[in-house]
Amino acid sequence: MNKTRIPTMLALAVAAAVTPAYAQSDNENVQSGLEVIEITSQHRTENVQKAALAVSAISTKQLEKSGITQPDQLSFLVPALQINKTGGTGNSFYVRGVGTQGTNAFAENAVAFNYDGVYIGRPGSVVGTFFDLERLELLKGPQGTLYGRNATGGAINVISRKPELGYTEGYISGSVGNYNSRQLAGAVNVAVSDNSALRISGQWVSRDGYLSDGYDDEDGKALRVHYLYAPNDKYDVLLSGDYYKAGGTGAGSVLISDGAPAIDERIGGADPVSIAAFEAAQPTSFFLSRPEFVSTYMDFETFNFYDADEGVDYEGYQDSTFWGVSATINAHFDSGTLTVIPSYRVAEPDTTFYLPGFPVINQDENKQSSLEVRFASNDTGAIKYVAGAFIYAEDQKSLSWAAPFSFAASLWGPAGEYVYSDLGTDSQAVFGQMTWSATDDLRFTLGARFTEEEKEMQVRQSPLTLETYNLYDFNNTPDTVQAEDERSFSNFTYRAGIEYDVNADSMLYVNYTTGFKSGGFFADSVDNSYEPEEIGALVAGSKNRFMNNQLQLNIEAFYWDYKDQQVTYLGYLPSGAFGSLTRNAGAATMQGAEVDIQYAVSDYGLLKANIQYLDASYDEFIYDGAGADTTVTTCATTPDDDGTTLVVDCSGKPALNSPEWTLNLGYEHTFELSDGLYLVGSVWHHYETERYLDIGYEDSQKQDAVGVTDLSFTLDNGGAWTVTLYGNNITDETVMTAAIHRPASTATYAALKAPRTYGVRAKYNF
Hints:
mainly beta
């Protein structure tokens, strides 16, 4: 971890010093002034610099340069955002300390994920979207008005490129790199007629695992189709469909307790070296680590754990499918635009992973449908507004099985009987937001949303073995209902703001916004529900461009008051079994400031700096732990009333995934080699101070301060084609993204971000 880093500031200074003074060019790498990014975060198109809210926009250019294919890779681009792996295809999002550890199928992110205007409910269903994108928007803080559902921390809007009328064009791109990395992507825009167009895009990614046991690999195939019909200026219809198949081995972990191999050796938790280190420090008669313990309970041939010739090999797998269809229908009137977005999505994650330090099998089947109807007024007049309604329905079936102990092979229920759960959700909301221009320079905003949700869940137990069990054939599965319950939640959230234009290029704004995340259930037979969480956020900011659009300076200060936080963690369930549960843990305060600077050194050089200071701590954080011999934490503990478990008090601890300081610093420089041929050099450095990754607050669950540097050189033939040499994490830093305490032991297992990667990318536009 203490490796010599490239002196980034020196590299930036040298690059700036050699800036040539060439004339203007038509190439996109050579431009006068800073880039203008249009966003739709408030359901109308506007310049991000004119939007009076805390939002970061990442352009197509930046996304392609970073080579992003998975959600967790976004963490290094936006200081306010942390993304952690949770096993299989799951990801948990944190914005300034507000988020959810999504360790079970029913956990819902506190940062709403929206894909082309469609809300995606499950943390494991957001993969496969990062290709052929127009931009990405991160809204920081609660979005209680226009987005609403489960957006206490913010919202991530992924916007893909849409068809354009009147011409045919496309591109094909590919890359190769270390770890046998291969990627192929492309898109084509076809003018079907004068008033219709089709865009088809796809991506294939394949890469070996970053860990010694083969875990942390990538194998994904994605396809997206858009069809646009716009016969006149009165209405248009966009029909969309997408498909993603995730294969490979999936998420893994490394042992980081005493006696474990060095973390930077990336010895996977299923590697015999790691298993031996674990068993040397633990009572092996108690823990399931060796093949003979596994074969005592189950033949895992169906789940790739058992091979008749070679025995148990602990090989994980992913065989997950995600697809969806939607429509975006716009009717344009003199007074504004009516938008209708119906959608239907199916997610079927089917994974075996080793992230907690032992094999976990998850099979889910999620079906969600939604309908959003809204009317946005035009931008003329003193008042502009958006008003609408949102309906969301979801059916989620889940089977989970884990093998942490030698005496119990099932996560829920005794060996030989397997528990699965069925969760149904219905959510409805009405919302509206209005901005009144009191003068040409002074505006006031009011918004409100009323949300009502109903959830019902059944926990069922089946005597079938895993070898013959099929999650997707519930009607033919004999079972008994262990528990069933239903609950309703409702909430009124709002936004109030004021904004003032100092001049044409500078503005001030102040907003107060509230957010709500509904309560729900986790899979157990008793005491298996939790209450909603709420947040109120005060934000004051200033957005500015100076020096004839050469310098950008944006400043934002924030204060968030977080109540009844939902915390999901591994532990003993109320019924006495071991599993994943969610509780309301208490209250927290997040406060700090963020500064964003962009400076066009010349038409050929661009300097970017973004720094965030965050003071996030738990005012009250109390939850039920396990027994005195199985709870490992540095927080205060006291026995509960019956003395069987411990009450854990982490009040005063820093919020999870909340580094005090985060810095992004980058410089890009264009050299004109000849007429129409350019060399673009780019360096990007991300630095963050220490942060805790799990509620045990052990030293092993703390990521120390770390800096990661990316470097690239692109040869650009005037936009016709590009060839890029890239190196990410060039100093090969080892960065933890999750650190989970293995139950009833002293061991901790960590998930890691990517090591040093390098390779070449090429793109051809036609």
